[in-house]
Amino acid sequence: MNKRGFLLGVLAAAVAAVGTVFWMGHREYDAPVRVVAAEDGGQQIERGRYLARLGNCVGCHTAPGGEAFAGGRALATPFGTFYGPNLTPDPEHGLGKWSADDFWRALHQGKAPDGSLLYPAFPYPSYRHVSRTDADALFAYLRSLPPAAQANRPHELGFPYDQRWLVAVWRAFYFRPTSDEPAPAQPSEAWLRGRYLVQGLAHCAECHTPRNRLGAMALDAGLAGSLIGGQSWYAPPLTGDRVTGLGDWSRQDIVDLLKTGIAPRSHAAGPMAEAVHQGFQYANDADLDAMAVYLKSLPAVGTDTASVSGPASPALMSVGGKLYEQHCAQCHGADGQGRSPAWPPLAGNISVVAASSDNAVHMVLSGGFAPATAGNPQPHGMPPFGQLLGDQDVAAVVSFIRQSWGNQASAVSLPEVRRVREAVR
């Protein structure tokens, strides 16, 4: 069934449900937020600046080459393209007429000041976890920015997704403004803080949790890895899976990746590189360690199975091996171990052995850099091979690295390569 038929079927089943949905009182995670009870204006703004960086708010609300937080950044999704709105205090186009209560309701209930429902492309299903203290600090920081008189760009959505009233149907099934994940019997302060950041402001689940055909997160598979809809990137599992997740990572490995973009088992790339460059590298060590404590507590769960092709044929492996020796071994090594910190390992790399081959294919086609950070100020880059290698060659070399040096991921098919190539054009 196509998306439109499925949505209309859901709509028919939901008519009665929508009329009975009422927004009950919310509750926040009982998490330490490490902020004094009373702050002067300057302290509150500085804390808001820190939180805005940690959540990489600028990433969705700044167009390439545009004024910071003035909106206009495109977000491609399976339902169309959304554009981040203006968050500066401009009274006509931004938050100039908003109150702190308005901002709080947007974060926790996904509602604009006039009561209209916000599309969940704005990640209020995650921001519902943010405390009022932190929400007020964020708002104070945004109100301190210079106003930018830049009009908000309308979203470009196809029917029926351009019918905003259908958001009420979606919410009836998939959204409650509550935070109900159970905690351990005696959780540590670090675990509570880590959960608060991972599930809330850092909104890790928005990329790393599988979604259904209507874009709702599968909460029974939280942080289990997912293709990022509308993009050619795969967000790997952050759970305890020892092959495709963080099971064999140490807490320090996780902190290093968030702080510097590089770790012994992988380097940040694509959207994660942007999150590190613009956000996580500025986080304090205590917060990064708390996030690592929480992530290391997560058990392994079922992961996405985007790649379905089987083992590569001997002929494909032979071609891939020759291409690897010619183009890749100089940096990543004949043994796939790489040379840290310049070039990441390919053996055991969670982006290489992921359920989806998209990240590896993307890097071969387009190349890229690890993020520039204080801990890695001059990252080495990988050149693009998309113009040099045809689709069959890309499938061969990526299949080779996914099935060498102990890697046991699936082979890569021509349709997979063609789909990614089309997405990155």
From TrEMBL:
Its cofactor is heme c. It comes from the Bacteria. Binds 3 heme c groups covalently per subunit. Keywords: Heme, Iron, Metal-binding. GO terms for molecular function: electron transfer activity; heme binding; iron ion binding; oxidoreductase activity, acting on CH-OH group of donors. Heme c 2 binds at residues 204, 207-208. Residues 43-146, 189-299, 315-405 form the Cytochrome c domain. Heme c 1 binds at residues 57, 60-61. Heme c 3 binds at residues 328, 331-332. InterPro entries: Cyt_c-like_dom (IPR009056), Cyt_c-like_dom_sf (IPR036909), Cytochrome_c-type_DH (IPR051459), Membr-bd_ADH_cyt_c (IPR014353). GO terms for cellular component: membrane. This is Cytochrome c. It comes from Pigmentiphaga kullae.
